[in-house]
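Appendix B. Raw example, untouched.
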Amino acid sequence: MPELTLENLRKEYGGHVAAANISLTVADGEFVSLLGPSGCGKTTVLRMVAGLIAPTSGRILVDGRDITRVPTHQRQIGLVFQSYALFPHMTVFDNVAFGLRRQGVRGAELQQRVQQALASVRLPDHARRYPRQLSGGQQQRVALARSIAPQPQLLLFDEPLSNLDAALRDEMQFELKRLQRELGITTLFVTHDQTEAMSLSDRVCVLAEGVVQQYDRPEIIYDRPATAFVARFIGRSNRLDARLEARDGAQCHLRLAQGARLVSHHAAAGVAPGESVAVVVRQEDVLLLSQAGEHTHRARILLRSFVGSRVQYALQLDGGPELIAEVAASADQAQLQPGDGVHVGFRPERVYVHADASGRAPAAVPMQARP
């Protein structure tokens, strides 16, 4: 399967920039997700790759061949939409065969390739049924079979799982990953669901306001967010305003707006002591402790929420801000109740500090090197 390269891809609508000079490479057989909130430009990028809209500038390359102005039907792509887009008056067989027939495939070859596609999505006995006779998950599988039957070079997904319930979504995530690995198709996947992106992808491209914030492996994005936006967006986070007091080697000493002090191992580049910074601490990195220690803070539990495998607490530091903490439901700390006092600690390596204190997404960051 080919390599997909986007070079300074840009799309403007009047004075609005929907995608700002997007540059990234999806390697041969790689699964890459475009991840970000609504309006971040991810679907715009996908539609440009698909040929459904024309870029204002930039190029789209497949194995070095420029396809920027090539019509959609000549790009050898498979498209799977959020709405499935199945023809209700056609059987499953005819839905899957639609693209093949447009390619001129007939007879025994048509039968064989449709059955192969249905077998790949584990629906070999559903060829005679109609979409109305299928569950949502089965309809999504048929849409997937239709997209792979013509043997495309690229597979593009536009939030294909968002209409499914939680159990079906989890099931289809495994099915998509299994099928993509088996077929080895170079895949670009659009989603606003970070769990979906992190679990499915070889690499994730995080977008905000049409700008690439970070492009790397899921574990790198989670453990080493490149911008304040990525640190806030990935995971369940607390965002705090602080001031950089001093640097001591690899450590940053911080003071929150309400006076509490924190230590971080993530130095904010270009920030001088005395300047404002944005501090991000994920909920699971707020440590609830029974005893005081170095750099701990007194706090009081405000609210407790049980959410299956974990318990979430709203708490307030003495003389400080409110935070959300998350612990495993099996942990001793999961028995705390509103009104209880607790000591709170923060691991310095999990306290993220960035120069952007405005809350807005910063400018583009350099594309990460391919692993």
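End of appendix B.
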